[in-house]
Amino acid sequence: MTDLLAALLLGIIEGITEFLPISSTGHLLIAERWLGHRSDLFNIAIQAGAILAVVLIYRQRLWQLAMSFLRPGEMAAADAAVYGQAPRDYSYKLAVAFGVTAAGGLLVKAFGWELSAEVAPIAWALVIGGVWMLAAEYFAAKRAGTLGERSAITWTVAILVGIAQIVAGVFPGTSRSAATIFVALLAGTTNRAAATEFAFLVGIPTMFAATGYELVSVMRNGAAMDEDWNALAIAFVASAITAFIAVKWLLRYIQTHRFTAFAVYRLVVGAALLLMVPNAS
């Protein structure tokens, strides 16, 4: 397999898995065993491609939130557009969720934590996450039946989503999107679309910050000088395009379906990997 084809495949894998609740980090760590290990800059680039796709999808929402601070009077009529909440209030909750994640992430870095590349922990995270998703889906449905349709993001939801992002970052295979969406659903935002949108929007500054942090580190140690820029460019474009398609599809899918299929997928893949652990770890 040529290096450019491997880069293309890794970009596609990142784009598909970054925002689906199946763990991009877990899939990439496993894929690199067959497609070759990549530099930190390469991984930063494909993650940036996925972020760009989500920014494009939510560009109108992001503009609305920004304008709520610049022209608050003119935005009053659009207050209900953010799932019944004033755009400025919604923005503050996004900021709180991001702040919790940033503080926790810096603390994790201070302790010298490094991402595990072993197959077994990833496989177990996929399996446990799949079971947790099924249980969370059940309890979230019961909660929705009791509380009714609730789209508002509370301060409790914002804080818990921030914590969920930290947990997902520490344990590869957990999935940031799965952790944040289901925490929101269990904490009282019973509308799947509302919970998913908040999880994706808070992921934008979170992932941009993480990408920027790693990029500065790469530039300081001079690793960028040895990078294959053609492969990186191909992977970046592939990630952006596939992430755009994947997120658009997911947003339509959850309007009429639960997340059960993703939980089953995690269980199947995790179980298959555990059977391969003696040969792949």
Put the structure in a nutshell.
The protein has about 280 residues and is mostly helical. It has helices spanning about 5-15, 25-35, 40-55, 60-70, 85-110, 120-145, 155-170, 175-185, 190-220, 230-255, 260-280.
Q: Care to describe what's here?
A:
This protein has 11 helices and no strands. The protein has helices at residues 3-17, 24-35, 40-57, 59-70, 87-110, 119-147, 155-170, 176-186, 192-221, 229-253, 260-280. The chain is mainly α and 281 residues long. The longest helix is centred in the C-terminal third of the chain and has 30 residues, at 192-221. The chain has one domain (3-72, 84-280). It is globular and about 55 Å long. 40% of the residues are buried.
What percentage of residues falls in helices of 4 or more residues? Answer: over 70%
**What portion of the residues fall into strands of 2 or more residues?**
under 5%
Mean pLDDT over all positions: 86
Strand runs, count: 0
Shape: globular
Alpha carbon gyration radius: 19 Å
Summed up, the domain count is: 1
Unreliable segments (pLDDT under 50, ≥5 consecutive)? Answer: none
Largest sheet: none
Describe the SSE topology:
Layout: H1 3-17, H2 24-35, H3 40-57, H4 59-70, H5 87-110, H6 119-147, H7 155-170, H8 176-186, H9 192-221, H10 229-253, H11 260-280
Helix pairs in contact: 1-2, 1-3, 1-10, 3-9, 3-10, 4-5, 5-7, 5-9, 6-8, 6-11, 7-8, 8-9
Keywords:
mainly alpha; single chain; globular; 281 residues; 11 helices
